[in-house]
Structure formats: C-alpha cells, structure tokens
Design a protein that fits this description.
Layout lengths: L5 H27 L2 H16 L9 E5 L4 E10 L2 E6 L3 E6 L3 E5 L4 E5 L3 E9 L3 E5 L5 E4 L3 E6 L8 E12 L5 E13 L3 E14 L2 E16 L4 E13 L4 E17 L3 E16 L9 E16 L4 E11 L7 E12 L4 E12 L14 E12 L1
Antiparallel strand pairs: 1-2, 1-5, 2-3, 2-10, 3-4, 5-7, 6-7, 6-10, 7-8, 8-9, 11-12, 11-22, 12-13, 13-14, 14-15, 15-16, 16-17, 17-18, 18-19, 19-20, 20-21, 21-22
C-alpha cells in the first residue's frame, strides 16, 4: 500500500475549495435571476417611485399621508379643507390633515399668520411652506397657514354663487301660488371674503297677495389669524308690508371668531355695534312713521357635513334696538341640502322671523310677532 503524501492531500483540498467556490457563484447567479429576486427588485423600484416627488409642470400635485398621488388642479384651502379638481375623480374635498405634500404649477396666494399674504409657487410638506417668487425661496411654518388659493389671474376665479328657487301651486277650492327664492354670492381670496345673501317669499291666494317679504344681507371679512377675523362692515335690508315694515336698514361693523374649523364642521360667531333706520307702512296718530336707533347685532353660522350627500346649515341673527323700532328681532334659517348631481341640490329650509314689539298700523291692527315658513327648492351651484 502506497502512502499518501502531504502534497497530494494539499492538492485535493485546493481542488475541493475551488469547486465549492465555483458552485457558490453559480448559485448566486441563479438566485439573482430567479423570479423571487426579480419581484423583490421590482418592489424596490416601485417603492423608490412612490417616495419620489413628481414635478409640477402642467398640473398641480397632491400626496396624501397614505402615499397616493393625485394630479389635477388645486382650487383652494379654506376651513381646513382642500378643494382639488381631477379629470378622473372630479371635484374632491380633502381633509387638510390627510394631505402630506402639495406642489403647484401656477402661482397662488396664501394668508399666513404673522406674515400676511404671500404670493408665488408653493411647495407644502408636513412641516414647511416653501414659496418661490423669482428670488430666494422663503419658508414658513405649515401650522400658521390660514388659507390658500391658486390662480387668481382672472377676477372670476374669486367668485362663486348658489341660487335656489321653489314653486308651489295649489288649485281647486283654493287657488294659491307660493314662490320662494334664495341666492348667495361669495368672493373669497386668501385673506378676505365677501358674502351677499338674498331671501324672498311671495304668496298669492285667490289672486290676493298674502305674503311679500325680502331680505338682503351683506358682509365683508378680513382674516387676522386662523380663528379671528375683522368684519369692517355688515349691512341688511328688509321689507315686509304684512309686518308693517316698508323698509328696515341696518349697518355696522364688528369682529368674529371661528369656534370650530374642521373639514366637516364650521362654526363661527360675529358681533358688533350698528345703526338701524326703519320706515313703517302706516302708524297710529302721534307716532313717527320713521325710527332710527343704535343697534347691537350678533350672528352665528353653523355648517356640518352629515355625509357625502347631505349638509345641515344653521344661521341665526339677533338684533337689539329700542322699543319704538321693535325691541329685539331675530332671523333664523335652518337648511338641509341634499345633493342631486354635482351642481344641483334639493334644499329644505325652515325660516323663523320674530319681532318682540311689532308696530301697530293706522287702523290699530298689530302684526303677529312671529312668522314661520317652510320652503322647498332646487339650487344650482356655480
């Protein structure tokens, strides 16, 4: 028997090591080409795309905290709700807290606490607002953002309107026709808003007019902080011959505070001093047909989204004046809005007007202090 030399053993070990290394390389190559590993690489590529940021060229971009990207046009941010218009998804209202990133492709304006109104191209992440307007980018704290609007190149970009019309016809033993109309016109920018409202009711029974009242209110607000705003002017015109009021005009100024401001609920209260002038249809002998008085006006507005299709809106106004002008009066409107299509709603409203001390007419008849109305109408948003 021949003995195995040390060199033979060493050579055999080296051959085994080389063969093992070659097999390992082939296994690694096979692994890299395997379907499982290819899928993992694809996942990594997808992950890298999801965390990248698209460039705003022809569209605005919004990323949600869940990671989805939306491409379209940003309309504006008000009351912690971002309005976003998408060709595929139509007009969306997004909770601001659900928005992670925003980038605009056209200039806009934003109102930021302690800084006022700023203009430019916007990039907004979860912490900062970055504004570029021809010079060095400026940064602001996202938590200080009050409102935000894009565009504004045309005056029409700032305006919106809603018109409601209702008609009830009865025929038979009693012929009666009831008309009711409401309109709201609003101009909103990043730092201000203007509201103009109209409510009117006309009713004829057997060709005799039994109801004919009209109310026009207007106010202008300027945002100071996320919750506080000035109301440099407000005004109201009211006419109701059946309450012995030929005309009643109230003007004043005040301030307001937003109590609740979320994507689903908004509640604010305003108040301030004013001046009221009233002209009556007729008065008893010895009474003045016109009265003027200082006034104190308080208004509250509450709006909640019950679900995606139904909103509830509550508005209440109370005015204190002297007894000759009616004591105190209030105007309350509650409305349920149910969406029919994107632009049309079905509105059901309950209206309550109250005058604590109605003024008697020249024949001694005293109007009732309360007037209740239930109206149904179709509204159109523009």
């Amino acid at each position: 028997m021949h003995s195995i030399s040390f060199l033979q053993i060493t050579f055999a070990c080296i051959c085994l090591l080389v063969m093992a290394g070659t097999q390992a390389e082939e296994t690694a190559a096979d692994t890299e080409d395997s379907p499982v590993n290819s899928a993992q690489a694809l996942d990594r590529d997808i992950f890298r795309w999801e965390t990248s940021t698209p460039t705003a060229t022809d569209f605005d971009w919004v990323q949600l905290v869940s990671g989805e990207w939306l491409k379209g046009e940003i309309k504006g941010l008000f009351d912690d709700s971002l309005e976003f218009d998408s060709d595929k998804l139509d007009l969306l209202t997004l909770d601001w807290e659900d928005v992670k990133y925003v980038e605009t492709h056209i200039p806009g304006s934003a109102y930021i606490e302690d800084h006022g109104t700023v203009y430019g191209y916007f990039r907004i992440n979860q912490n900062k607002i970055i504004v570029t307007n021809g010079g060095e980018p400026k940064e602001y704290d996202r938590s200080r953002l009050v409102s935000f609007i894009t565009g504004g190149e045309e005056e029409s970009d700032y305006w919106s309107a809603k018109i409601t019309f209702g008609l009830i016809v009865r025929s038979g033993n009693t012929d009666q026709v009831d008309y009711n109309a409401k309109a709201n016109i609003k101009r909103t920018t990043s730092f201000s808003r203007f509201n103009l409202d109209y409510v009117g009711n006309i009713s004829n029974t057997q060709d005799v007019e039994t109801i004919n009242n009209h109310r026009v209110t207007a106010n202008a607000d300027r945002f100071m902080t996320r919750n506080f705003f000035w109301r440099p002017i407000f005004g109201e015109y009211y006419r109701d011959p059946f309450s012995n009021i030929d005309s009643r005009v109230t003007v004043g100024a005040g301030a307001g505070y937003t109590i609740i401001d979320t994507s689903r609920t908004n509640w604010n209260i305003t108040g301030g001093p004013g001046y009221q002038a009233t002209r009556f249809i007729s008065v008893q002998e010895g009474e003045d047909i016109e009265e003027t008085t200082p006034a104190m006006v308080v208004t509250t507005d509450y709006d909640i989204e019950i679900n995606k299709k139904i909103d509830f809106i509550y508005s209440y106004n109370i005015t204190w004046v002297d007894n000759a002008s009616g004591g105190y009066t209030h105007h309350m409107v509650t409305t349920f809005e149910s969406e029919i299509t994107g632009s049309f709603d079905l509105d059901v409203s309950f209206i309550w007007d109250h005058i604590s001390k109605p003024t008697a007419a020249d024949d001694g008849a005293v109007p009732l202090p309360d007037d209740y109305r239930l109206t149904v109408g179709i509204s159109y948003d523009y």
